[in-house]
Amino acid sequence: MPEPTPKKIVLLIDDDPDFLLQNKIQLQGAGFEVLTAETQAEAEKILSGRRPDLAVVDLMIEYQDSGFVLCHHIKKIDPHIPVILVTAVTSETGLEFDSTTDEERSWIKADRVLAKPIRFEQLYAEIQRLLKG
C-alpha cells in the first residue's frame, strides 16, 4: 500500500487572532497542516525547527516592518519557500506596493502581496498557485 502523501505545511503569521483562527480552520479543512504565530519571535522560533511549504506573513506585526524582516528571514533560510505578504497598509495609508516585478520582489522578498481584507477563496487560490509553481 502506498504511503499517504504528507500534508503541506502553511505557516500563518499575524497579530490578529481572528485572522489566524479563521484561516487556520479553513486551511485545515482544505487539507493543510497549519502552524500559527502572532509575533516575529514566535515565527522565528517555529522556523528554527520546521520548514513550512509556504508562509503567509502580515506586514505589521509588532513593528511597521516586521513582515518585511520575516520575509527576508524566510528567504534566507530557504529561498524556495513561497511567501505571501498580507497587509492593510494600502487601505490605511494609500501607500501601494506589489511583488509583480523582479525589482519589487528583490526588496520585498515576497512572492505575492495581498491587500487586506482578504477573502479565504483569494488566499487559497494564491496558495494553490504558488505551491504548484
Short key terms for the protein model shown above:
single chain, alpha/beta, Rossmann fold, five-stranded parallel β-sheet, globular
* CATH-defined architecture: 3-Layer(aba) Sandwich
SSE topology string: EHEHEHEHHEH
Q: How many structural domains in the coordinates?
A: 1
CATH domain class name: Alpha Beta
Count of β-strands:
5
Rough outline = globular
Query: Strands of the biggest beta sheet: in what spatial order?
Result: 2-1-3-4-5
Q: Give a quick account of the main beta sheet: strands, pairing sense, barrel closure.
A: 5 strands, parallel
**End-to-end separation:** 29 Å
- What's the rounded overall pLDDT mean? 86
Word description of this protein:
The structure is a single chain. The chain is an alpha/beta fold and 133 residues long. It has a single domain (9-132), classed as Response regulator (Rossmann fold). It is built from six helices and five strands. It has a five-stranded parallel beta sheet, with helices on both faces. Strand 1 (9-13), helix 1 (17-29) and strand 2 (33-37) form a beta-alpha-beta unit. Helix 2 (40-49) runs parallel beside helix 3. The longest helix has 13 residues, at 17-29. The mean pLDDT is 86.
